Amino acid sequence: MEEVKKEGKDFSMDIDIRPNRAKDCLSHKGVAREIGAILNLKLKPEIIKIKETKENAEKLFKVLVKDKKACPRYNARLVKNVKVSKSPEWIQERLKSCGLRPINNIVDATNYIMLETGQPLHVFDMDKIAGREIIVRKAKMGEKITSLDNEKYDLDGNILIIADRESPLAIAGIKGGKKAEIDSKTKEIVLEAANFNQQSVRYASKQIGLKTDSSLRFEHGIDPNITKISINKAAYLIQEIAGGEVYAGIIDVYPKKISPKKINLDLDYINSLLGVKVSRAETENILKRLEFITKRIPGNKLKVTVPTFRLDVSIQEDIIEDIGRIFGYLKVPSIFPLAEIAPPKRNNEVFWEDFTRDVLKEAGFNETINYSFISQKDLEIFGLVGDSDILELENPLSTDFKYLRPSLIPNILKNIEKNQKTFKNIKIFEFGKVFRSPRTETKMIAGAVIGSDFYEVKGAVEFLFNKSGIKGAEYKNCKATEKGIFIPEASSEIVINGDQIGFLGEISQQILKKLKIDGKVVAFDLNFEKLVKLSSEQREYSPIPKYPPALRDLAVLVPKTVTVKEVADKIRNSGKPLAGNVELFDFYEGKELPQGMKNLAFRVIYQSEEKTLNAGEIDQAHRKIIDSLEKESGWQVRK
Amino acid sequence: MEIIDLKTLKIEANKEIDNTADLKSLDDIDKKYLGKKGELTRILRSLQILPKEKRANMGKAANEVKNVLKQKIEIKRKEIGKDVIIADKERIDATRPGKAPIQGHLHILTQTRREVEEIFRSMGFEVAEGPEVENEWYNFDALNIPKNHPARDVWDTFWLKSAKERLLLRTHTSPVQIHYMETHKPPLRIIVPGNVFRHEATDQRHEFQLFQVEGLMVDKDISVPNFKAIVGEFFRRFFNKNMGFRLRPDFFPFTEPSFDIGMTCLICEGKGCQLCKGSGFLEVAGAGMVHPNVFKASGVDPKKWKGWAFGFGLDRLAMMKYKINDVRLFRSGDMRFLNQF
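ok -> structure tokens follow
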């Protein structure tokens, strides 16, 4: 129940009908029947008193169903001498409160009965039907129809239509046509109550792009056995409000009669599924209220005959659903399952995902979560136009969310732009999937920092690797990076065991300008799926040295093109085995230095596991390092 | 006369220093004897009028006394309140706000997901994941939502432009039920957190991208009461109080019977208010007993196994728990929001 609203002296209830029960409950009768079952009340008998003329309809009019699969049943009744005018107020009011527009008494009567029984009806002006014959057939390629509301539709060979001998009169189950429309001069009418196949109506409705109250009901499927009562109700109502005289007999084309399904219901199964004891008598009572017919059969079972209007019921579980519903889930107790207490397996990927998030949080980063989409404009800004690997949506909500993101970076940068007004220093990261054609999903971890430099962000990445037990990361200066997101001279490719893991560096100024970001942004972008394979929880204690270490500092003047790694490696190699630890503690490039040179200052820790080193031994080792450095041309150890 | 004065002064001062027990009076003594207008200063000043050699002797004696007293006061001061003596600029104002350490934040959805995972893990559920780009089979057909069926319209779907197979963004986490059962034999207990996508307009309460959590338990002897017990336990632990909830019949193609789970409204506690539209309950999840067709589609024998499944929106749960009034805040990237958690 969605809403109850007062309408004059009456009330309207807005009820949300789930798709399975749309088959029988998109109608007042269906809802009344449900309420009756729940409250254990009977429906009032229906009164239909049609005064028939002597002439028989079947002699005056013909119905030919050419496609019996798309139209399993077709009923028609004829009424003469109708007076077309406005409907009585009470009908108009009721139609309006259900969202229907009153037209005239004839059309309103058919709509009224549709609301009551759930069976859509249609009405034609008999004098406008060529040859006094209705033909139910698929449209011909290129055939056209103008609807009652003057819209033109092109039909195709899979769309079912109601036609006369010459041309289409209506799109079956969806909309009537202009040709046989009821007007003020209409005297004789043909009432239609037919059953159309749900797929056929759904196809046609999608094809011509038109949904109506009628197509909605047919799309869900309707019991073919309710056409007759509906057409009689409509004829009766027209007789009452439009003064028509109803011809005798109903034209009924129903070649393959649908009979009720029979399902064996295991009473023990009810108990084991619902977990409550519902007695046989109670089960029978509930099913009777729902108009199911039950018969006891051996093996604690019931043979259940399902009324044909319950198209949703086809297996035992469907009946048990009904029993549970009427019995009431409130009466179902809470009982913990009996199951093995085996602890759940750890999902390794999820574990490391959370671990990674925690490490970045420790490093002072804020986690952000963005939509998995990027915009048309982003493609342009990041130079991705024409990249055939990018997945595009067929039906995006807007151009802002037109493509699946191929990288986390664009949205993270947009976060920076957004927050720049409020925060000076921003450190954010996101964990999520990126997408590539045809259907590759990769978990990535990316972050961006404003108000800091390359080395601080590199420090955060190193911290992450260190905490995750990832060893052997190499940082290679980039020559030309991916699509120019990073500035080549200020960024680095991260490689582990020869495999590219990701990138780290300054974002291109051009991109920042286009995103209206002021300042320098340093970002990292790592392939999490590769990282998780390298991560390890193994830790080992390394013994604290027994003998005191000796510290010596070393300053080297080298050309700017020489990397810190090259110099440090040289020191390490030539200092073996005593130089245990080599650390850069100062870096200087300045005017005081010779052109094109930089000064690197290292602290070397000499350490032996066997004894306390004496000054001579240390000097000797240090000398060896200096000699090896000075062998390099252009390198100069400062003394 | 001056000599006697000096001696008496020394004795007096010593006595006073010995007898004092607090810094305030020690400061007073310091002032009284050694201050600018103190006794000793006065004596030293008065020496000016004496003859030279006498002045030297007296001065020396007075300075000695001054130093002795100074030292004694310092020692005493340390005894009373060791490090309390600090320069004025180091004095603190305890009411001034502290300097916050630089800290990062985890997204509230991450935190909420962890809470949910932890509760279910403790009840023996494993965390499983699956792809976000799906085909029609996993998102619909295998879940008993056939082609050309209006039930499909319930899930407004984002479709991808794809050359070969028709691809979509999963509209629920339920496809993972199928993936998981295809590769794991029952009995099984899993929860599946992940992104889902719905093609719908957004407002305070609607989003086109959401975080869903799916649960699935398959075993030989499983029934509705088991589901009620697990879900009830989850609510109690998640909201940290004895939450009331109810099951109402509902329809999902992949479960039969199906129910929706309504939780006692957090605002009115069941009395009925605007938020819960007077019902006293808030719908939080859909659930039901696994439909035999879903088992068949995953290669599990429905005659041997039974199961239940549920799905709820993590965004919704976080909104209720933390009183967040707009679902769009989660993916706004606004640090004024992110920093609060």
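Chain B has a mean pLDDT of 88.
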